[in-house]
Amino acid sequence: MKIPLNKHKSTLARILNYIGAYRWLVWLSLALAAITVAATLYVPILIGKGIDLILGPGNVDFAGLLGILKQIGIVIFITALAQWLMNHINNRITYYVAKDIRTKAFNHLEILPLSYVDSHPYGDTISRIIADIDQFSEGLLMGFTQLFTGVLTILGTLGFMLAVNPLITVVVVVVTPLSLFVASYIARKTYSMFHLQSQTRGELTSLVDEMIGSQKVVQAFGYEKEARLRFSEINERLRACSLRAIFFSSITNPATRFVNSMVYASVGIAGAYAAIRGLLSVGQLSIFLSYANQYTKPFNEISGVITELQNALSCAARVFELIDEPPIPAEAADAAVLEDVDGSVILDNVSFSYSRETQLIEHLNLSVRPGQRVAIVGPTGCGKTTVINLLMRFYDVDAGSIQVSGHDIRRITRKSLRKNYGMVLQETWLKSGTIAENIAYGKPDATREEIVEAAKKAHAHSFIRRMPQGYDTMISEDGGNLSQGQKQLLCIARVMLCLPPMLILDEATSSIDTRTEIRIQKAFAAMMEGRTSFIVAHRLSTIREADVILVMKDGHIIEQGTHGTLLEKGGFYADLYNSQFSC
């Protein structure tokens, strides 16, 4: 039966490529399917022979019937065993393939550029890796379980029927194409509907992920009603497209059953006429009727399989779209490992924008000496965080260059570059695990003494001791059972543990109380001693001690100097600073 793939042939070819890794299991499954079908088709022959041994009242060959019953019992046992083994193997193939594709998708996600993550909803990406692959595996399992046996049953019954009576077999073959046409026509209609269903499901997952992740904000701003309305609208679209997909797919089975009933009736009429004319015995007629039923049954199953395969293919196509996304550009062939970093950083005529329509940073020049503390200030959207993204090579510059210790960062490995930076951001990130594991995230081989010392320097030791299991206390995803300030202290301790030669502090103390902030600032001062530091801050009182303050506006550095000189100048920085202390 032809599956309407058209432009989706490549998706099927890629799936077959993944299945090819388990080809020996596929061949074993086919062999067991052949045994199952052969044994199943042999039973009607034995039953037909048994019927012919019942010649009439008082004329029954009981000895012959007993032998046939024993044979039927043995054949049924072989059928059951072969079918169980085949199902077990099909399960292994399906879930190994699903595991391979999910692993490939997740590994590829790890090497996608930050621009992909920034431009795609998290929930949709999660839906592709989790829900779509689950849907794909279900369709693939049904295909393995029913498609092999279905096709072999059709071919086997045709062979047996031809051996018994070619004329009646021709009747069956003539009517069969109608069933094929009906199933093929309906299957063509279902692919686009299942694809739309997968897309809408991803959109709904994205909304739920967004609302759960921002539940406090939702409740704080009374957004519950709007969230319910958005959910209801997407959920209604999912209901509608799911019903359309299921409706069309559900037509397939009744339609093929109707055609198959015509086949069975045709065989019954032709067989009865042949039996009356003496061309068939009663036992042979029963064999033909059984085979007609066996022959038509796979068409019902295969039609259902094709519907599920449409869903599986549409889900697989979405996963392959993710896998086909261009990864981060590969490292240069001669990329060097950054070592012996002195902390000098030069931005030479740097230009960058997130989109071609809107230019953000143009011709930015900056020279940072080793050990210098550089503060970056300016209004929201001026490019402060963008500069950090460029320094860390989360994005590459469109023009110009960035050099660290005399090396163009595009000519050194990303891992070695980022290893020489320590970052504390306003947005904290913690993973599910113990407090000690979270502090040691950048240095997994750290000893407990090193972890405790880092926590003390970050002034996190006191609150950690009060936790139920101290440093072995489990925290939930993103530290949900900690306050924002406590989470930020753990992130600071994480950097204190590694102490790289360059630091990036982006609103690093924004969620910490004033007394703790004073202590942290002292710890930062000690930590920044001799280290090149980039400090992004909105509270200008925290950057007074910076060696140089860069004032950015619309992607350009418009002012540069120390806190005192910029205040004396009375320019944009002075206005920003004074606005924070005006009544």
Number of strands: 14
CATH homologous superfamily designation of the largest domain:
ABC transporter type 1, transmembrane domain
End-to-end separation in angstroms reads 79 Å
Q: Please compute the radius of gyration using only Cα atoms.
A: 35 Å
Please, how many helices? 18
Mean pLDDT score: 80
Strand content: 5-15%
Largest sheet: 6 strands, mixed
Tell me which CATH architecture of the largest domain applies here.
Answer: Up-down Bundle
Helix content: 55-70%
Q: Which CATH class of the largest domain?
A: Mainly Alpha
Which structural class do the helices and strands define? Answer: alpha/beta
- How many domains in all? 2
Strand order of the largest sheet: 8-11-12-5-13-14
CATH topology of the largest domain: ABC transporter transmembrane region fold
Shape designation: elongated
Low-confidence segments, given as residue ranges, are 1-7
What does this entry look like structurally?
This protein has helices spanning 9-20, 23-52, 62-110, 114-119, 122-164, 166-213, 215-220, 224-276, 282-323, 384-391, 414-419, 435-439, 448-457, 461-465, 484-498, 514-528, 563-569, 572-579, and strands spanning 54-56, 59-60, 345-352, 361-368, 373-377, 399-404, 407-408, 421-424, 433-434, 474-475, 502-506, 532-536, 548-553, 556-561. 63% of the residues lie in helices and 11% in strands. It folds into two domains: 11-323, Up-down Bundle (ABC transporter transmembrane region fold), CATH 1.20.1560.10; 345-579, P-loop containing nucleotide triphosphate hydrolases (Rossmann fold, 3-Layer(aba) Sandwich), CATH 3.40.50. 35% of the residues are buried. The strands form four sheets. The protein has a six-stranded mixed β-sheet. With 583 residues, it is of the alpha/beta class. Helix 3 packs antiparallel against helix 5 (122-164), helix 5 runs antiparallel to helix 9 (282-323) and helix 13 packs across helix 15. The N and C termini lie far apart (79 Å).
